Amino acid sequence: MPTTTPRDRYREQVRTEAKSIAWEQIGASGASGLSLNAIAKQMGVSGPALYRYFAGRDELMTELISDAYTDIAAALRAAAVREKDDRKRPAAVANGLRTWAKRNPHRYLLVWGTPVPGYEAPQTTTDAARKAMAVLLETFAALDVAKGRDALQDDALSGEWAPGTSPRTRRRALAFWTRVHGFVSLEICGHFNGMGFDPDALFAAEVGTLHEV
Amino acid sequence: MPTTTPRDRYREQVRTEAKSIAWEQIGASGASGLSLNAIAKQMGVSGPALYRYFAGRDELMTELISDAYTDIAAALRAAAVREKDDRKRPAAVANGLRTWAKRNPHRYLLVWGTPVPGYEAPQTTTDAARKAMAVLLETFAALDVAKGRDALQDDALSGEWAPGTSPRTRRRALAFWTRVHGFVSLEICGHFNGMGFDPDALFAAEVGTLHEV
DNA sequence: AAGCTTCTGTTAGAGGTTCTAACAACAGTG
DNA sequence: CACTGTTGTTAGAACCTCTAACAGAAGCTT
Prior knowledge:
homodimer, globular, Tetracycline Repressor, domain 2
């Protein structure tokens, strides 16, 4: 039984506050602008004090990424359970992910953008990844009526990421992930800017094609 | 007539060498590990000397990104002209982009990954972006037989990025870009690792769906 | 050829970062 | 009350970007 002493609670509070300020900084100047020193200063504490709470910049970063991953998984789950109609659920999840990403672009990019050098995915992150994938797999499994075979070899997309799923479900889940990610990452990185087309229309069209795959 | 003096040539040579070392460093430790100082040291020259050649770290980074963008556009063009069969050209271009990205993951991510803070796209980058998009638009325009209307509003995807193209061509070019980017960026960031499915099979399947859109 | 100008390199230094080491002060426990 | 462990402090090493002031070489002009 992990009894939490006052010291433990204080420690956790400091860590939480530091992480919150860290997100502010990342939002302002990107992941590369994250400075343990600046966080300490903003907390009214002097530089190396934070090293009592985080082994270093990398550990803080790793924890931020891990938290973000957990958030994404939760957002996906929430979007999925909110939509009762199996047929409409894929679109709902897609919209949920896009909305979350637009609200938390830096969090999203920390998880699925350019990897940060010193980061080693801990167990909790792997778990969150599995949970996120599970939402997609369940979403498409609900639509799984026997409808003939996929064009692919049945086992080409199998693997430990999706045990006990049908080939079509795996195919759809992966199409969902890669397509939605492609759109969302380009959108939040601003690569659609200045092109002049309507992103909403493109997204809606792409989501529509998920039924066909 | 811009006559190139020996000094100009020397200057250009130094800049080129610096950029080449910069790519090495980025390959080794990511974009955040790029250090003007370290480049200088490796060139056998002392720290601030490089500031005669680049206004600062941001300018060097901007030039690297711009060069990478130009490279991507060239790779797309090369893949397109290599395939004579109009019907097979989309797949050829997709494979060309994926291959280039796997060979130059950092270059790819600098262009289409998480944006780096101090970067402001110069004119040359915008031009390269247009050229890259032009390859996609031409590739799909070649398949443009009158085949009924798109499900979308005809003008929803129009804009200055694609003047004088059909709605279907625009739709396909954007689907190509977002889908291939989604797959490629996840793949080179290592997000498929440990999942256990066959990336080649998924990519082939996704490329196959481009005909249907 | 001589002199002037421009460019290129140097060192010094300010201010930022991460992170370690040594030390002081506090909280909680026997 | 004393002891232990935690938390904060400052000092400092090693890195970074970037500016300033200066030395020397290269090229152009007269």
